[in-house]
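Worked problem 6 (solution included).
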Amino acid sequence: MLRKSHAIDRLLRERPHLRERRFGLPDIGRRHDGERFNPAVQEIADAIDFYGYGVRDENIVEIPDTDLGSGNPTEFKPFPPAIEAMKESLENDLMYRYPYTEGDDRIRQKLLEYVEKEGFINTTPYNYKDVDEKGLSVHNITFSASTSILFNQIINIISNPGDVVLVTGPNYGLFTIRAERAGAELEKLELTKEDGFLINPDKLAKRIDQINESLQQAYHRRQGYVPRVVAFLNANPNNPTGKVMGKKQYQLLCEIAEVCDKRGVFIIDDLVYRDITYDKDNIAVPIATIPGMFRNTISLFGLSKSYSMAALRAGFVVADEIIIREIINKTFQQMDSAPAIIGTALGGTFNATEQRYKAYDEYFNELRKTYVYKFNLLKAMVSGINSVEPKFKKKVTEKVIETLGFADGCKVLSGIPMVDFPENLEPEAGFFAILDFTKLKGMKYKGNVIRSEQDLLEFFYKTSRTRFLVGQSISWPYEDELVGRVTFAIEDERLIKAILNIHNAILLLEGKEDYTIRKNLYEDQSQMARIKVDGWKNAYDTIIASSYLKTLNYEEQTKRYEASFEEYKDLVFVAVRKDEVLGYACFNPIPNIDQFDSELVSLYIKPTEIGKGIGTALFLETCKELKKTFDKSNMIVWCLSDNENAIKFYKKLGGKIVKTKEAKIGDKYYKEYGFYFQLK
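Solution. The predicted structure is:
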């Protein structure tokens, strides 16, 4: 018998990413067709991967970090009726039987009675005998192990290749990734400050029409299916902004529903944070309660966030019977059935009995107070103690002083320097807050400048082992801003110490540079040409034959740069002060040189600006770009063996000479060293 290779070796060749032993977030996954995610989703995937894995170091097992990006709700007792229902089931039910794929009809009847009491109504029902006076039946409901699984199934059911799911930005980044993994394309509807970070129906209509028109143009000559916008994901309350659309925003919800209904776009109504709306008189209104909108709405409920049972992974979906049938089919094909205990917990939580609603009021009166207090604790430490509601000042002050002592406590209660909440964006539900770190942009720590959200996260991790989700992870709509999504659901002491660490870290920062780094523009080429010519004449005066140096001139070099601008415009960074170019770096992500997978082709600094850290800044920005955008792991840099200043520079940055070669310049050959850099 011929054995070509071990089975495990073959698997590793096919899936080389499995060679890497990861601690923290598992691999984010891929599309079913093997293609990269579209750029908007890839940005989210990269940012989440960096937060969950990339920024963490090899000491993570021995030295835990503080995770302010966690999605866990606060430590609170699980909803008592759910626990009682599960205990009773385990004690009295026969557990030897497999559950039905669709779930026990007795449980589904309880869920049906609950949603009908909450106002769900189908004004255009099917003509089945079991349909009740609200136009619904148990066949409009099924449950599974989390709303995440249900969401994946829904996207797979309602979309064909090329179809678009429209999501808001900000959003829950993992849902956007899951949607594209399930076979859809993702587009964003940006929520803006002028709209109070709520959905603007006119902008929603315009965005759907714009996407559909572009798809029509792209596919109009092809036979067969033309993709379209098939769904709009409406998280209410929104994760991560915490904005709520309740009965005070009922007209807005009606307009949103009408926009989607008229265009044949399903609304996926994500209601998992609904019950931890702070204002009990304005909790989120399900769109399926609006007359005429049930059949166009797919509603998701779950236990994880509001009911302190994230570990159970339980969710249910309410939708048109056609959709529920196919969800049940997919559940049977993929996992046979959901555990029966999940249905028991859901039935104990979501039912229409008086006992349930009495327990609900008692439970959430306490839980809402807990979340409002915890937000005020965070607010005191971010914006200062005078920013909180008066009734919380004493409790917050005492807790901070008790945890940190008087000196550090007073420091923390003065607020975080140069950090605040975005204007008019305080959560109305949930346990996340957005912090605005934009004022830190351009500041530096040990020579490293904070230019991007990745820089921001690396800075806080290095100085305080604290991490959180940055704006790119949640599709923050303002690209020039640096923001982070932080949880305030963790234990008070951990939250207080984490904010102290962030506060102290910021005090380590040095002032901003008077220049910025960006991609080069066409109008930069003449200045770049002068820098190169001057750089060669200054650096190589005693190294390269003077006959060759004399041939260099500004005009010819400018022409060459301008002629190649379109080809290389995305592969050049420039450092600029106002309109003055101070230096530039050119890189190649596909050098095809031995084992090296990228190259820094050239790095030139204006002679008058040498020694000011500009070269280092350009070098580091190039490394980040190669790793982040092009997924490169190492880089080669060549320099003349007689260029002592360059050799010192690259050695100081950690480069190691691994190769030599002969380079022809003019009529002569010169020895060059190849410096190797790991980009991580």
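Discussion: The chain has a mean pLDDT of 91.
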